[in-house]
Design brief:
295 residues, mainly alpha, 15 helices
C-alpha cells in the first residue's frame, strides 16, 4: 500500500501542472478563439491541418492528460477526427524539455529520429482518422451545456465584456471539462499507479529481453504504464544501458507517453470503441516498425 501511495502521489504531482495547463488552454480555445480561425486552419481534411496540430502538439508543454481536454475542445469546435487524433499523438509524445533530455542522454541522431517518428505517426494517424466520420456529441455554435441548463445565470456566461469572457474561460476549463472527462482521467491515474507498483520489470530486462522480445516488451510496457515524455527518457536510457536494443527504447519513448489509461478511456468515450482500436493499432504497429528499422 505504501508503494502504491508513493506512485499515486508521484503521478498526481507529475501530471497536475500539465493537466491544469491543458484545461486552461482548453478554456481559452473554447471562449476566446473565434470559430472562423478554427474552420480556416483546422476544420479541413488534408496534410496542412495535420502539420499545424502536430507541430503545435510538439511545442505545447503538456502531457497526455493535459492534451485530453484540449483535444476534446477542438473536436467540439468542429475539427475533424484526423487532426484531433494527430494532436493526441504528437502532444504527449515529446516536448521541448523531453527533446533536450533526449539529446543529452541519447545523442543527436536518436533525438532527430524520435522527432521524425512522432511527426510521421501523427500525420499517418491523422490521414487515417480523416476517413472516419464520427458525429459530434453536441452542437458547436454559440450554445453550450451551461447555457442550455441555465447554469450561466450566476456567472454571466457568454455575456459581453472582457471580465465576463475571462470568467467563462475558467468556468469551462475547471467546471465543464472536468465534469465531462474528469472521472476517466482519475481512473487512468489510479490504474497507472497500480501497474507501476506491482510490475516486476528488472528481472525480465536481465533474462528475457534479447532480440525482438525486447521490442514486444517495450510495446507492452508502454501500453500498460503511463510515462510522461520527459520522465520516460532516463528510463529508456537505463533499459538500453542494461542491454535493451536502442530501437526498443525508441518504442517505449513513443508508446509510453501516448497510451495512458486516461487517454484510452477518453478516446473510447468521445469517439467510440472502433476509433480506440484504430488509435492503439496504428500507434503499436508504427512504433514497432520505427523501432525495428532504427539504424
Amino acid at each position: 500500500m505504501k508503494i502504491f501511495l508513493f506512485h499515486l502521489q508521484h503521478y498526481v504531482f507529475e501530471i497536475l501542472p500539465s493537466l491544469v495547463l491543458g484545461f486552461l488552454i482548453s478554456g481559452i480555445v473554447h471562449e476566446l478563439i473565434p470559430q472562423k480561425i478554427i474552420e480556416d486552419k483546422l476544420a479541413k481534411k488534408g496534410i496542412l491541418p495535420l502539420l499545424y496540430v502536430v507541430i503545435t502538439g510538439i511545442i505545447l508543454p503538456v502531457c497526455c492528460f493535459g492534451s485530453l481536454p484540449i483535444a476534446v475542445t477542438l473536436r467540439k469546435k468542429g475539427v475533424p477526427l484526423g487532426p484531433v487524433l494527430a494532436f493526441l499523438v504528437a502532444t504527449p509524445a515529446t516536448s521541448i524539455s523531453a527533446i533536450l533530455v533526449t539529446l543529452k542522454l541519447m545523442g543527436l541522431d536518436f533525438t532527430l529520429y524520435l522527432c521524425f517518428g512522432v511527426i510521421f505517426m501523427g500525420i499517418l494517424i491523422g490521414l487515417i482518422g480523416n476517413f472516419f466520420d464520427v458525429p459530434l456529441k453536441e452542437s458547436v455554435g454559440e450554445t453550450c451545456p451551461m447555457c442550455e441548463e441555465c447554469e450561466g445565470q450566476n456567472h454571466q456566461h457568454h455575456k459581453k465584456g472582457f471580465l465576463n469572457r475571462i470568467k467563462s474561460v475558467f468556468y469551462y476549463a475547471f467546471f465543464d471539462l472536468p465534469k465531462e472527462i474528469g472521472l476517466e482521467i482519475l481512473i487512468g491515474i489510479l490504474l497507472a499507479a497500480i501497474v507501476s507498483s506491482f510490475t516486476p520489470v528488472g528481472y525480465f530486462i536481465k533474462n528475457f529481453l534479447k532480440g525482438f522480445a525486447g521490442y514486444v516488451f517495450a510495446l507492452i510496457f508502454g501500453l500498460l504504464m503511463y510515462i510522461c515524455a520527459t520522465a520516460s527518457v532516463p528510463l529508456a536510457h537505463a533499459f538500453i544501458q542494461q542491454g535493451l536494443a536502442p530501437g526498443a527504447g525508441l518504442v517505449l519513448l513513443l508508446v509510453g507517453p501516448i497510451t495512458s489509461y486516461g487517454t484510452i478511456l477518453v478516446v473510447k468515450k468521445e469517439f467510440g470503441i472502433k476509433i480506440l482500436f484504430l488509435y492503439l493499432a496504428v500507434i503499436s504497429l508504427v512504433s514497432i516498425l520505427l523501432g525495428v528499422v532504427y539504424p
